[in-house]
Amino acid sequence: MNTQSRLEKILASGELAVTSECGPPRGARPEKVKEKSALLKDHVDGINVTDNQTAMVRMSSFAAAVIIKQMGLDPIMQMVARDRNRLAMQSDIIGAYAFGINTMLCLSGDHAKFGDHPMAKGVFDIDSVQMINMVRRMRDDETFQGGAKIDGAPKMFIGAAANPFADPFELRVMRLAKKIKAGVDFIQTQCIFNLDKFEEWMKGVTDRGLDKKVHILAGITPMKSVGMARYMKNKVPGMDIPDTVIKRLEGVSKQQQPEEGIKMAVESIERIKQIKGVHGFHIMAIEWEEKVPQIVEQAGLYPRPKV
Amino acid sequence: METFEPEIVAFCCHYCAYTAADMAGSKRISYPSNVKIIRVPCTGKVDAIHLMKALEIGADGVYVAGCLAGDCHFKNGNVRAEARVNRVKKMLTELGWEPERVAMVKLSAGMGEQFAETARKFTETIRKLGPGPGKRTGIDDRAAS
Amino acid sequence: MITAEQKPMQEIIQYIAPYSKILLVGCNECVTVCAAGGRKEVGLLASALHLNHLKQGKTIDIKEITLERQCDPEYVEELAPYIDGVDAVVSMACGCGVQTVAGRYKKSPVFPAVNTRFMGASLGQGVWAERCKGCGDCVLGITGGICPVARCSKHLFNGPCGGTSNGQCEIGPETDCAWRLIWERLKELGMEDRYEDLMNAKDWRPGGAAGPGKIIREDLA
Amino acid sequence: MQKNNSSENTLSCDRRVLVIGGGVGGIRAALDLAESRRDVLLIDKSYAIGGLMTQLDRTFPTNNCDLCTVSPYLSQGARERHLDIKPMTCLTRLEGEAGAFSATLVTEPRYIDTEKCTACGECAKHFPEAVRVTPGLDPRAPTCMRYPQATPFAFSIDMDKVTDITALKKICKADAVLENDQRTETVIDVASVVLAVGADLFDPAVLDNYGGGQFDNVVTGLEYERIMSASGPFQGNLKRNSDGRRPKKVAWIQCVGSRGINKGDVPYCSGVCCMYALKEAMVTKERFGKDIETTVFFMDMRTHGKDYELYLNRARDEYQIRMVRSRPHSIVEKSDTKNLSITYALEDKPVQETEEFDMVVLSTGFRVGGETRDLAEKLGIDLNPHDFAATDHFNPVLTSKPGVYVCGVYESPKDIPETMVQASAAAAMAASNLPVVSVDQETEDLFMPERDITGNDPKIGVFICDCGFEIGGILDVDKLLTSVMTHQDVAVAQAVGYGCSSESMAKIEAMIVENQLNRVVIGGCSPRTHETKFQDLLRRVGLNRYLVEIVNLRDQNTWTHMNEPDRAQFKAVKLLQAGIAGVRKNRPLKDHTLPMSQNALVVGGGVTGMTSALKLADQGIKTYIVERAPALGGLARSLRKTIEGDHVADFVQTLVQKVTAHDKIQVLTRSIIVDHTGMPGLFKTGIQTGLRMNYMQIHHGVTVLATGALPNRPAQYGLGTFKNVITQLEMDSLLEDDAARVRSMDQVVMIQCVGSREKGNPNCSRICCQTAVKNALRIKKISPEIQVFVLYRDMRTYGFQEDYYRRARDLGVKFIRFSLDARPGVVETQGTLSVYTHDFILDSDIEIAADLVVLSTGLIADDETTEDLALLFHLPRTVDHYFLEDHVKLRPVDMAQRGFFLAGTAHSPKTIRESITQAQAAAGRAQTLLAKKEINLGACVAKVDTKKCASCLVCVRACPFDVPFINAEGVSQIDADKCHGCGVCAGDCPAKAIQLLAYEDDQILAKLDGLFER
Questions:
Q1: pTM surpassing 0.80?
Q2: Domains in chain C, please, with CATH?
Q3: Could you give the CA distance from residue A71 to residue D880 in angstroms, rounded to a whole number?
């Protein structure tokens, strides 16, 4: 055991872990963070706090994570390479750890072009792999990236994202390997709709024995409507949504679509549970956090084990 | 006030448009005498600067007349010319001048009637726009550059 | 090659509004090749400025000259005979050229007429694409000859992000994913295994992080 | 057919072709021969060459001024080094045989030394009676030469009328009068003879009912031409002979002396009168006032030439020319007004009408004159019943005597384009008896060495043509000259009349020399047609040919702004200013040349293509025939008999055998053209050939387009629905294959103009009337009992086809006219066909039961093929998809795109005989180009200023022909011999390092400056 992370403990116990996420508000409204995370209470082992997701300015993930931590819950602080150089990253990591935040996720970040500040200069001083490596060395070697010793090193449980669906597909397992090499502890995948392709990727992962070196949490997103499915298929980069998903949603009335979406999410979890190497689920109910407990319960992942 | 008689320059390619203009003549089809032709071997020779200079020194409108699409004697000179005309249109827009003062038309050698029709239409367009850059101010002591 | 694009006409017009005698200076190097500030563009801009002034009912005297290279003082010296006769200089060179001119002729205001864009390569007639960021520490040797700094929208050093779709970058289908290209190239070269080598965080000092770059060749200087 | 005495030919280098007759046909034939490097002697009995055409005011269908269109050819005549011209000369004897004739020529005394005569006109001024006058009604032309552009440029004296020879000699400053000039006889060796003697015009004086030549205001078509002509008796004003008033109401009477059986009439159709009457009527309205009423009395309106139907429609619809279908009975002159009343009957009205006109024009046609008959006898050639030269049925330029060829009207009545075609064909045939003069025997001695003008300030001469009334009638030339003189560097400004006439050219040359001019501006017609001519003028006086600028004052000014003379004047000033400003910047340039490919490509393997190919191959030219079909033969394969009764199949068979056996011909069937590059003289054409569609590339210098046309088959009158409704083409076969079936019929109805002369295909298909007559006669031959009805709109049996038409009528074939607004109908009831139509003579609707309805469906252009080829070769087409030749009048086989020649039905519908003629003509014209051996690429090429070049590659990428490259010095290089001269590179070069010579930026900008100079 490297860290105090609740997620690490669950995973170490061999139980399937469950995480979800909470997008911070676009304003100084701590109550919003509280409302959202309260919905997830008891049903998840960690709450991802996104970092200016889709390149829209939001409350910093550091601040929102602190609020969640102060509620007694377990935030997973996300950090993107887009907005900070290595100095800012490291100071925030120390700061967060000082508030008891012990789990984080290292990401490249969506390109600023899509956000509300397309004119912004992306920092990209280091990339997500280099970030993983930096955080690991801060923890294990107790040194800053520049080489100096840290007095009071942050012991972060380090996560990263993986998108099994982006291409080139053959690179996707290798990229995972690279992140493992850099020192990642757990992986949350992109939302999985194309289960066949995910299985193929997982086979690549297990064939190389990578599932032994990292915990993989499968990304699950319930579709609210067929419109959302279409939007994700056509507009969100790196998404793989088979036509069968859209057809199935089209097959039911508009009122029934949310329920059908949840049903589909639960079915996915059931199927993914059978896949070797999957150690948990990351449920991203986008602006629909209230449904997470229902999915967790219906998927037989409730109650959460105590660690 | 006198009616405004625009002065128009037409750069015509030897093989198509210039021949079409001759054809209009031999058929005695009249078109406004405002249009004066400068012959070029191919409209691909017509540079953006020729159009700009024409406007600068007194033309109220300038057009480039080449072969029909796909019929250019030199393969694609007319396509190049059209691109340059479009660039000049853009520049004129940026400068606050009417982009309609320049135009590209495409004619085959036999299209005498169409040549005349084009000349008439373009002259009318320019007549409506009024005097061009070189005419507005009546500056004549401008130093040559 | 340094690429540039002409500035919006109104910006140039604003710059020169107070002046009536302009020296318009082109450059026969990069900006000629990228059709932004060569002899031809100098002529066009001069004509455009005349058209603008005619609209205002004013006159403007423009002297056109195109230097072999505006970023070399010896060539810039060729402007000396004309400089006293003008109120302002408009340079159609890249930023390097503008500054060389401005540095030499301190009494004349010097205005840029082009926006310097990037170091690029020609993809064919009229198309240029960014190829180098001048990072000062070239990695092309290990990335199959495709630069992740200049060509990946996020300057990623360790492979493609999750936004790639159909082999294109998430910023748009007109941009190739640099890492897809690198990967394909490495495969062609039989160097796939190199991909899993971790590339460490880059030292940005040679590329400008250490302040304005300067090269001094002692054998030549 | 012709003997080829090659062994003897090599011995006689001075053996040449004798062309008899200096009209346009003779000139064309002589020029073709000379251009293809054969020595030729052109003789004409008159004192100047030019023939009939030079007397015409304008020619249809372009309504151009004739003098302007023909004059380039005439002065070309004086220039060609292989061509000698002997006016006032006749042939008196011809002995020997083809390839080795001996011709005896007699030249009448001119009493003027043509070398010395400057045509100053002093002699004519003082002794008008002794100088030969213009024929026709002309009492005294403005100059006493036959027309202003006379060749040779000299007077001639009628010695019988000279009273005081000493005075005459004294008046001649040039000492050109040869008092003791003698009639001379010469004997020359001749390989072949081309007869281009034309024909006389019918003299209507014999027609008492039309005034017997006594009425002042009744004139012939030619006299009317002279009246309108700028060089005519009224200086181009339309006036009545009786009182000099402008007529308000003019009538034309067609077929005067033609198509008749009356006293003095000839039975054939003269073929040109309908068109010239329409032209005269249109020009009358155009030039002398829209208010002039014009009426044409006609029997059948015969506008069967290419696009002539459109001309007819324009005459009727746009010019409101009234057409009356009637042959007037008589003309009576009013004694007081000298007006004329015409009495005529309309076909559907029983009573005669009488109408008064100010002036009547008799459209008289062609006659063979007595002199021509004598000449034929001397030559020993057979004549046809009408005294025209009898010719081969499949090859109209062959007379009965080997080595003697005929072209133009003397073969049969025809218009100028057809004459031009036949002239080129006759020349091509005549050339086959001769060896080609090799290039190295020639020297470039035509032009003076060039004067070096470097460092000289521009000294410009401006010469303005009045072009008769074409320019001078609209513009005030004197005012123009005054304004021109104010311009800097202009040293001379002069009016030069017809600038392109030899007289004016000589004058310009003299002024250039005298004033040491180094730049010239010509204000005249289009540089497209006349630039070369004036460039040559400069070369003759030692100036580089690029130092001239042609200002288009006619085609693009006076012709289009004729109704706004003030504006035309203003525009002329501007255009001249531009010309002067431009020429000031012109520099001497060097032309570039390349050796030419001596191969020919013939596209299309029908009769036309095969004929052309044979003609070319016989001259040693490697010829490729590319044919889309699996076999040669084309449309003629489905044709059985000609109107003359010849079997087409036998003819085609022989032709195919000859072509296939010829070692210089490569036949490529099942082949299509897929790509094409290069330039005239050096083409590269890619084809896919054979069943496997293998690709091959042909290198050739010339291309003959002989792609033919398609038989039309519109779904009209039950064609395709009713079994017994067939086309004439099917009838042709039926007549050959199933005479028994034909014999069993009682009534056959033919319908003309099916799918022609109406919307969708407005032109006449030309061949159908003669086809219908042919087939009607064949039916009658099978059984005279069969009733044949021909429903027609106008019977267009032009020329000698009229004989067959008359024979058909004599045999009882019924010709019933219909009009488009009452067109016939065909119905089938219980298997029986009936045809309904309106009979104008009976003025009632009639019904004819028919065993067979035969539709004259004619031809339509092969749109798909001509479109494909037009795209590949960049060739223009007519609106109805035939290829469009360079000049419909004077260059009917040349395409505007040099190196392309057009023949057969790809040009327009025509008979097999006419196609063959055009095929030979195309081959002949192609040879004139190949004979040049090298291509002059001109000087209009891109030039790189290497000091400015930024090596940016823009030119390399922009060039449509991949010519520029970056050379070892690291700068762009554009090889002049590869550059096509489009200037795209110059337009794109961001460093302004490339200039297109002759169109440099400073030249274009100077022209702009000139335009806006105030």
A1: no
A2: 2-118 (3.40.50.2300), 133-207 (no CATH)
A3: 87
